[in-house]
Amino acid sequence: MKEDLEMGEELMQHLRSRATELLLREEWNESVQAYSDFISLCQHHISHTHQRPDLDHLLKLQKSLCLALSNRAEARSRLRDLANALQDCDGALEIEGTHFKTLLCKGKILLSLNRYSLALDCFKAALLDPQAGLRCEALNGFLERCKQLEHQSRTGVFDLSDWVVTGFRGKFPELAEYIGPVEIRKSEIRGRGLFATKNVDAGTPICATKAIATERCILPDQNEELADNIQLVMWKNFIDKVVESASKCKRLHHLLSVLSNGADEDVREVPDVNLFRAETEEESALSMGKLDMDKILNTLDVNSLVEDAASAKVLGKNSDYYGVGLWILPAFINHSCSPNARRLHVGDHVIVHASRDIKAGEEITFAYFDVLSPWRKRMGMSKIWGFQCNCKRCKFEEKICSKMEMQEIQMGLERGLNMGDAVYRLEEGMRRWMVRGDEKGYLRASFWVAYSEAYGSDHKTVRRWGRRIPAAEAVVDSVSKAVGSDERVLKAFLAGLKRRCGGGSGLVEMERAMKLARGVYGKVMKKQAMRTLIELGNHE
What's the pTM value of the predicted model, to 2 decimals? Predict the structure, then answer.
């Protein structure tokens, strides 16, 4: 028996040394296997020690087991096998509840899972350990990150000012997961949608989340066939990333099953929005079935977002790339030709914000394509997307575009009609047809090209028609109120200010510009940073 015990301890020592060596060499898979062998042997010895109590030997084995579980958790976390890594941490803490290395490891895992409050508890507990003094600076860094992210997650207050002012130098800002005053309900547009539960001011963040997976590349401008081939490779890589992530995480596997896959959308269950909050995660209660590749492909086809889209702005170095990704909660946002939300891409995160004021109960909507376009062109684009838009704006314009005068204006523009003449005829028509409020903004948005060119070229058009056409500011206000803020509308407004004021502007005009900018970029930076971003946009 004594010889068997000595041989067993020798084998344990060999396995522990081997596992530690692999861990230090960052050979994560091999390290996990080596630690698994050591842990099994250690647990076997502990069970036999319980049969023949030797307190000192038992304590030594338990200490070794605790450290091995902690190290295996570290290796598994590097492999993004976070669920099993957390189980190892919990196993180690059952043996020694204040084990410094395990508390630090668990805190980092929880932080990466966006479970900020629980991560904060781990770091605070680790701070009480005597070993904390040796790593006090690093630990305090984790504590500050947790506090900042927890505040962002709770309040939806983000500040990208420093990053913007420095011209997007350095790393992307670290952003928290955030879900604002929204819920998921059945949508009159299509299937299920995201709805505001409170009034939301223009620019206010609605939600912020990190992509499940992204894929980016630079597409060639001149070679369409090559660009198509590159996109096919991108799509395959993107699918592989999603599948790999879903195979390691029960929660992600479940969330993918909740998304639309293009079939039976009208009868699908409406999930509670709390399902998407990381802090309420209960992974142990979820089942992990086999991945259905056909459903995953359909789900990604329906829900993936291209970063550089009509309703999006990509900040930083990623703006040089063509990118695609999957962001779970924003995938519930339907299209409307009078959208009320935009998205800001920062690294792998997306911040969805109100592009105009939103009323409680109103559905949150994106523009899937360019909505500063005439009705017939938008109908063609919606068919490419595989649906027919029946939003309030499209129903109104379908009716009014049947008027002969509207058809004549459109045909005139196609044949080179003077833009100022087109604006005048449209404005006169709207007076006769008693078009008011948002409906006037809808038509001005549809003929935005004519308005922007008429007001942007010189003062001749305005002088020619005088008060018979509205001031540029009135057009900008009605368009942004009807279809939300747009970068082109902001640029036109700023260009008008520059022409009238010679580069300077009054307080009222600048505040109007800032309100438009908040609708385009969101309330995620201070005024000086917003001015910097506006200037960068004007030079694009």
Answer: 0.90
Angle at 151 between CA 514 and CA 204, to 5 degrees: 25
Residue 400 exposure: Cα atoms within 13 Å on the Cβ side: 24
pLDDT digit string, tens, across residues 22-59: 999 999 999 999 999 999 988 888 887 655 666 777 88
- State how far the Cα of 191 lies from the Cα of 259, in Å rounded to an integer: 11
What angle separates helix 136-155 from helix 116-127, to the nearest 10 degrees? 160
DSSP 299-346: HHHHH-EESS-TTEEEEGGGGGSEEEEE-TGGGGPEE-SS--EEEEEE
Which residues have C-beta within 8 Å of that of residue 490, sequence separation ≥ 6? 513, 516, 517, 520, 534, 537
Q: Are the C-beta atoms of 103 and 122 separated by less than 8 Å?
A: yes
Element (H, E) at 252: helix 250-258
Distance CA 278, CA 75 (A): 23
Residue whose token pair is 């629980």: 118
- Rg of the chain over Cα atoms, rounded to whole angstroms, equals 29
Pairing of strands 349-354, 341-346: antiparallel
Among residues 412, 499, 429, 513, the alpha carbon closest in space to that of 462 is found at 499
